[in-house]
Amino acid sequence: MGSCSVDRERLEILEVGPCKDAFEMGLLIGQRFSELIRSRVARDLILQNHLRPFALAHTPHSESLLKALFHSNKTKFPSHWDELLGTAAGSCVPLLDVIAKPYIIHK
Question: Which alpha helices (DSSP H) does 1-107 contain, by range?
Fold first, then answer.
């Protein structure tokens, strides 16, 4: 069986609810963890140097990729999408950064 590393950064647990919708839940999470979210986004060199410039280049390729990513998330996972919108609003981090961050894999 696998083992757990005790050296990992411990995250605070936040009990949220009841909320009127997923956006409100994301908003509360974003507000509570805004410093942590902003710090992780600021330290992520792949996001800063590659993904964000690609997305903000407004080329036909980048725009079609973002449009497809946003559309796919909105239609397949509407509640999760609303939560991401709330998290971005609550943390004052651009939606693009909130969405892109989980897709970045570090070795």
Answer: 22-32, 34-43, 45-46, 52-56, 60-76, 78-91, 95-100
Three-state SS at 7: coil
> What residue type is 55 in one-letter code?
A
Residue 102: other Cβ atoms inside 10 A: 8
| Residues 45, 106 contacting (CB under 8 angstroms) | no
Q: What is the dihedral of CA 25, 34, 37, 95, to 10 degrees?
A: 60
Q: Where are the domains of the chain?
A: 22-103
- In percent, how much of the chain has pLDDT > 70? 85
Alpha-carbon span 12 to 73, nearest angstrom: 27
Q: What is the token pair recorded at 2? A: 């696998």
| pTM for the predicted model, two decimal places | 0.78
Closest CA to 27 of 87, 73, 71: 87
- Residue range 40-58, pLDDT digits in tens: 899 999 888 988 899 889 8
